[in-house]
UniProtKB/TrEMBL annotation:
Subcellular localization(s) per the UniProt record: Mitochondrion matrix
InterPro entries: aa-tRNA-synth_II/BPL/LPL (IPR045864), BMT5-like (IPR019446), Fdx_antiC-bd (IPR005121), Fdx_antiC-bd_sf (IPR036690), SAM-dependent_MTases_sf (IPR029063)
Lineage: Eukaryota, Metazoa, Chordata, Craniata, Vertebrata
Gene3D superfamilies named among the record's database cross-references: Bira Bifunctional Protein, Domain 2, Ferrodoxin-fold anticodon-binding domain, Vaccinia Virus protein VP39
GO CC aspect terms: mitochondrial matrix
Official protein name in the record: phenylalanine--tRNA ligase
Biological process according to GO: rRNA base methylation; translation
Gene field: Fdxacb1
Length: 611
């Protein structure tokens, strides 16, 4: 490893590292050799470094590192900068500026997988790791400063000066004096993945008997075809799906029918709020004809609709509406199976795949997630016992997974749907739009669907029931389950392109997740506007636009003020928008640029008048 040390005072820290195996040390300081050698113990440390084969370089400016090393010697595996300071009585602003230029300089000499270690005195960093923590404006704001250069804080731990052989801190106010390092912290930074480039993307799917292509909504470009459930995937959602399927197969004969389920539905979904749907325009000339749709349905291609009988339309010669949308649920595919009686009583039909729903921005509300849907036809009068058997099996599997990950047995409960009103999380609330629910499946110590609902259980609608059989279905949100089981606090982490996420789940092993981006900085921006007269403001469209413009870096949108102008009756809304990335560096300038773009597109797409 090549290690670069910057701003050394008496070189005692460098001397302590120089004996490590397979390590080449390059120790530097800002002063000339004559100035540096005059510090207590420095001459002895410099001799030790040179005797061990280390390089010692003087007059190195940490903000211009590229200038001090030839192209073949610029790649360092680790860069140390202990207790940086502009010197004398420089305030927090000047020291932030020093760190900003330092981090930008590091990008030119750090290996791709390298680390930057910055030690700061207690309170200077401005992170929750500092005890006591300074007010943000009075700190060096190190995480936000580093983010501006593309770095994320991946670890922070105590700087244990007493454990470093021969180390003596020096340089208090640019003098040969020591300073207090009690409570000091070492901050470890790594390179962030680059911001995503959302280039337009088209996707193909089967619709009836015809393969069609369509333009993917920009907010879903990085999520539409990730293959998390494919055979070679080690993603936790696939692991959970496979474990659940294996557990269910112990109690029921299982038939997997998830392959080739079309992404698009056609028609107008009854009962579902249209603002929750991703509407799709097919590529020119690709809308299937009535004959092709009829042929596709005859061949049992599962294209079905909420509340609309396409089979009947085709049989009666009625035109099939040419309106398409991304599937918000796998339930219509299950209903198509039930309708065609394409199942064996007692056999569990298992469907899985991504589904797409527009929703508000919260840590647990996701515009796309992986659904596991199981369907079981049972003899009338036995449905209650079968539901209990199904739930017991799911409980046993999830309990086993959770204990294996955290050693803690979770509380998994079946809650009567009639107990709950509006206090539902977005997953449960949307499921209620799809039809009557008998039970919620909740995970956690508090059986509250507002935060812990991961599944719903329902019986088939009356029109799909037979005299002898009752069809029971259970829908599970695999992404929410993965978050709860692996301790992932933000759904966006499941979709990160950073390879450090999947490295924590080798060969599909479930583990407690450890974030590689600690204390990410957040940036607050307020936006105020007049709502068009006589129109209801579509908050879901507002949140969806924020998702698209920010590339999912808006973590919260809160209504701050709702004002109605006396006399005119005009209504003004004010929202606070919080930008924060869970997996990559987000600087203040980038967040401000996103806010400006958001304001422009609000006028264009939502018809509001900015204030």
């Amino acid at each position: 490893r090549r290690i670069l040390l910057l701003g050394e005072g008496n070189f005692s820290f460098s001397a302590a590292l120089c004996g490590a195996r397979d390590t080449h040390v390059v120790a530097t300081c800002y002063e000339s050799e004559e100035e540096a050698a005059g510090r207590g113990g420095a001459a002895r440390s410099i001799r030790r470094l040179r005797d061990s084969g280390a390089e010692v370089v003087f007059s190195v400016d940490c903000t211009k590192l590229k200038e001090h090393f030839s192209p073949g010697k610029r790649e360092f595996d680790r860069i140390y900068f202990n207790f940086p300071h502009c010197g004398r009585k420089a305030g927090v602003v000047k020291n932030r500026q020093l760190l900003a230029r330092f981090f930008h300089s590091c990008t030119e000499v750090l290996a791709q997988e390298g680390e930057v270690h910055v030690a700061l005195c207690n309170g200077q960093g401005g992170t929750p790791a500092d005890q006591p923590r300074r007010e943000w404006h009075n700190s060096w704001q190190i995480v936000a400063v580093a983010a501006g250069a593309g770095f994320i804080l991946s670890d922070v731990h105590p700087f244990e000066a007493e454990a470093i052989d021969g180390y003596k801190c020096t340089g208090y106010r640019s003098q040969d004096k020591s300073f207090c390092v009690e409570g000091a912290l070492n901050h470890v930074f790594t390179r962030s993945t680059a911001p995503l480039c959302f280039t337009p993307k088209s996707c193909k799917t089967q619709l009836g008997s015809q393969e069609v292509s369509f333009q993917v909504p920009q907010v879903l470009v990085d999520k539409i075809d990730r293959g998390f459930l494919e055979v070679n995937s080690s993603h936790p959602v696939r692991t959970i799906k496979e474990k659940l399927s294996a557990g269910l197969s112990q109690a029921f004969p299982v038939q997997n029918i998830s392959s080739c389920l079309p992404l698009l539905h056609q028609g107008h979904p009854d009962g579902v709020c249209h603002s929750n749907i991703f509407w799709i325009a097919l590529s020119p000339g690709e809308a299937p004809s009535t004959e092709q749709m009829s042929q596709g349905l005859a061949n049992a291609v599962l294209v079905s609709h909420f509340g609309q009988d396409t089979d009947k339309n085709v049989q009666e010669g009625c035109p099939v509406p040419k309106q398409f949308y991304l599937r918000p649920s796998l339930l219509p595919h299950a209903q198509a199976i039930i309708k065609k009686r394409a199942f064996s009583p007692g056999t569990l039909q298992v469907l899985s795949g991504p589904v797409f729903r527009k929703c508000r921005i919260t840590p647990h509300s996701m515009p796309v997630f992986h659904e596991l849907l199981v369907v079981l036809a049972v003899s009338r009068g036995t449905e209650s016992s079968c539901i209990q058997m199904l739930v017991d099996n799911i409980q046993t599997t999830v309990n086993s997974l959770h204990q294996g990950v955290s050693g803690i047995k979770p509380s998994i409960s079946l809650q009567e749907a009639t107990r709950f009103g509006a206090e539902l999380n977005d997953f449960a609330a949307f499921e209620r739009q799809l039809g009557e629910i008998q039970h919620f499946l909740c995970v956690g110590t508090d059986p509250d669907p507002s935060g812990s609902c991961v599944g719903v259980i329902r019986t088939a609608p009356a029109e799909l029931k037979s005299c002898e059989l009752v069809v029971v279905s259970a829908s599970l949100n695999l992404d929410l389950l993965a978050m709860l089981l692996c301790g992932i606090s933000d759904w966006r982490m499941l979709w990160t392109s950073d390879r450090r996420f999947l490295r924590q789940f080798p060969e599909g092993e479930l583990r407690l997740f450890k974030s590689f981006s600690l204390y990410p900085p957040s940036y607050l921006h307020d936006v105020s506007f007049w709502v068009p007269d006589g129109e209801e403001f579509d908050e879901v469209a507002f949140h969806t636009l924020a998702r698209r413009v920010s590339g999912e870096t808006v973590v919260s949108i809160q209504l701050r003020d709702n004002f109605q102008q006396p006399g005119t009756g005009r209504r003004s809304l004010c929202y606070r928008v919080t930008f924060q990335s869970c997996d990559r560096a987000l600087g203040s300038r980038e967040a401000a640029e996103m806010q400006l773009q958001f304001r422009e597109e609000m006028q264009q797409h939502l018809g509001v008048t900015l204030r």
